[in-house]
Amino acid sequence: MSSALLPQRRRALVLGTLVVLLHWLALNWLTSGTLGIALPARDGDSAVSMALLPALPSAAPAPEPVPPPKPQMVQPPLPDFAPLPTIAIAHDTVGEPAQPGPPAPATKPPVEPAPAPPQLAAAEAPSPPAPGEAPIVHTIRRYKVDVPPPADLTYDLARTDADGTKWTGQALLSWKPDQGGYQMRIEMGIKIVFARVNLLVLTSEGHLGNTGLAPVKMTEKRRGRSLTATHFDWPGNKVTFSASQNNYALLPGAQDKATVPLQLAAIARGDQSQLSGDIDMFVGEDRWGSVYTFNVVGPEEIDTPLGRLQTVRVARPPKQGSYKTRLDIWLSPAHGWLPVQIRSSEANGAVTTQTVNKIAMTQPGI
Questions:
Q1: How far apart are CA 141 and CA 252, in angstroms?
Q2: From 2.50.20, 1.10.287, 2.30.30, 2.60.40, which CATH number describes the 142-359 domain?
Q3: Could you tell me the pTM of the whole model?
Q4: Contact present, 224 and 116 (Cβ < 8 Å)
Q5: Is 208 exposed, middle or buried (0-12, 13-18, 19+ CB in 10 A)?
Q6: In the chain, what are the domain boundaries?
Q7: Which helix (H) or strand (E) holds 260?
Q8: Which terminus of the chain is more exposed, N or C, with fewer CB under 10 A?
Q9: Nearest Cα to 264, choosing from 342, 122, 110, 147?
Q10: Tens digit of pLDDT for each residue in 184-203?
């Protein structure tokens, strides 16, 4: 019986081996069919091919965003500060010119000057007054004077144009008297971003004499315009201008546009009682000269960045036929009678005000 089972086991082993071999061949055929070989399709189906796709390249990193350009700062239009009045007084009669020199002795009484008309260039000669019309006569008073000590003043500048446009800026006044002479500089400008742009620069230099400040040369430089100079020829007794052919006789206490506030301070320091009535002074401007007539308004308390200050206000109102701008100056007795506020009010409604925010005195208390 055992011999009969032996052939059956061999047949089973052969069949098992054959089945394994057939499975291996089928598996090998399926595997090789996926490598670019078309698989057999059923009836009605299209053949499908399969292939291994190459690996996709890694995506390039996205570029960093470019920052937008910085906005450009647009500079606002700069205001053009109107010049001080520039119309000469044709019929003012004033005294003899005074030569600069040391202060006169206290015991010597002042001498009233004899009237003498200012000289005008032929091209600018005024028309004669109408018949029966008396010429305007100014009596130039002589004053005791005591010039202020050296000082540097900084002002807040505020301007309102005729159309209501408002501007702010800064002004500087540097006053340096020294051994019978002086140097002075005024700057007015506005701030653009982090810079200050000067719109007006005035310089003055001259002597100190018994009539106060005696200018020798004043220069004026406005933004966008050529520099002009005014010359005071004391030995030659005349005032001349680089910007015109005009010339005038020098008058006692004659000043330029830069020195007017300091001359008023010198008069107040010489004797406070002199701040009464009218104060007249001949002023050489950039093209011609005229007599400024100041009225003493009186004591006035004003607000400043330094606090409330007690001041004395003097004003030059408009004068028909001469100048249309009103000029107000506030002098501070507590600060050597220096000008702590200056205001120019133009006929068209524009107003420029300078208010002190810093005073640096090298000789305080004088």
A1: 9
A2: 2.50.20
A3: 0.63
A4: no
A5: buried
A6: 142-359
A7: helix 260-270
A8: N
A9: 147
A10: 999 999 877 777 789 999 99
